[in-house]
Amino acid sequence: MWSVGQRSETGYVRSENQDRMSWIRAPACDVFVVSDGMGGHAGGALAAQLTVQTLQERLSGMTSVEDAGATLERAFQAANEAVYERGQTGSAATARMGATAVALLAAGPRIMLAHVGDSRAYRLTRGGVLERLTKDHSLVQRMVDAGMLTEAQAADHPDSSVLERAMGQAPRVEVEVSAWRPMRAGEVCMLCSDGLCGYVGDDEIAAVMRGGQQPQDMADQLVRLALERGGEDNVTVQVLQCNSGGSLLRRWLSRSALARFGIGVPVVIAALWLGWSGVLSNRSSQGNRADGAPASASLGSVPAAVPSAPAPAAATAGALPSPIEARVAALERDARNDAAEHRARDASLAQQIESLTARIDQLDRKASAPSAASTPATSRARKPAKSAKKPEQQASTVAASASTPASTSPAPAAAESQRTPPSEPVEAAP
């Protein structure tokens, strides 16, 4: 139902990637999460990791979406509690640490969102209109809502990094949870940290998402745009495209563990089709006959007068059966044998199909089992030479679950600009 592309980069100024992301497949829905850590030293990265890991643990077992809103609320409160308790240990490295979070549930052709902070969710409709699905929990957003600032002024405001809500700042957090939103085939959703939307405008985001590219190409291009703006912050992007329902079986089979065993999708589909068509043809040939004998072997093919035909005049009580009577008896035996053989074959084929289906489900669950949250596995972007006009594209993609970026070279020496926790607003470093 969904095609997905995702990417995360450290940028050119920060010494580590404090963003985390995750994509897991629960029994009832797919779950996407982006979290942006804040806090000095290792605190920001730890806060984001705890947030994503806890959300994974609480949402990976969803077997129903009937009460999805309450489930999201409980998962966010558990994640907030985990971050808050870790920040109260007295360690200077984790003091006042926090994180933003945005989560999206995708169940069939509909989505539900929950978020805290300024990590965002967007949707591009089939008409090409970009909709912002979340509203930042920040000081400047409140000023925009009050009419004190325009969107353009808010983007360059010195307090643009001051948050009013974040994970781990209090024992409980106010979570904004949406209702279910319908999605149509071809529409695209995007989750991101403020490393994208803080440097790339909505018009530019819309232009990329309207380009008709594959989700991974969209994610790569959006991250590249953020890096071209200077790469001052970590940037993380997840792109989800809603596909038509007709491709669900093919995508499910292709994502499953069958490919790891060299079993192609056409082979599986052909095997299932041939098996079921054989079962159906056998059953249809039996019709409504109580004895289950195939029609081609039924006694209806013998003339009705034959069984009741009188014996030849020369026949006596001890005479052998006539050739016609022997043939009728043989046909009856063949019919019974054929019926038993067909019933056994039907049962065997049904068992094989059931076994294959169970094996596919088992392999798919094993392949999509949630992993522990960690930093997305991406290569760190390097600061370009002064003569270069644009940063070089980093050829890295993010694993389906959050993983730590591989450090390929030391980061350039630069001061980190940290976001301000809600309770102590200060100006962010340029």
UniProtKB/TrEMBL annotation:
- Compositional bias (Low complexity) spans? 293-308, 368-379, 395-415
Query: What PROSITE patterns is this protein classified in?
Result: PPM_2
The answer to whether UniProt assigns keyword Transmembrane to this entry is yes
- Pfam families found in the cross-reference section: PP2C_2
The record's section on InterPro entries has: PP2C (IPR015655), PPM-type-like_dom_sf (IPR036457), PPM-type_phosphatase-like_dom (IPR001932)
Q: Which residues form the PPM-type phosphatase domain?
A: 3-242
Give the GO molecular function terms: protein serine/threonine phosphatase activity
Q: Keyword check for Transmembrane helix, yes or no.
A: yes
Which UniProt keywords are present, listed alphabetically? Answer: Membrane, Transmembrane, Transmembrane helix
Q: Spell out the residue ranges making up region: Disordered.
A: 284-308, 364-430
Membrane-spanning ranges: 257-276
Its recorded name reads Serine/threonine protein phosphatase
Its taxonomic placement starts with: Bacteria, Pseudomonadati, Pseudomonadota, Betaproteobacteria, Burkholderiales
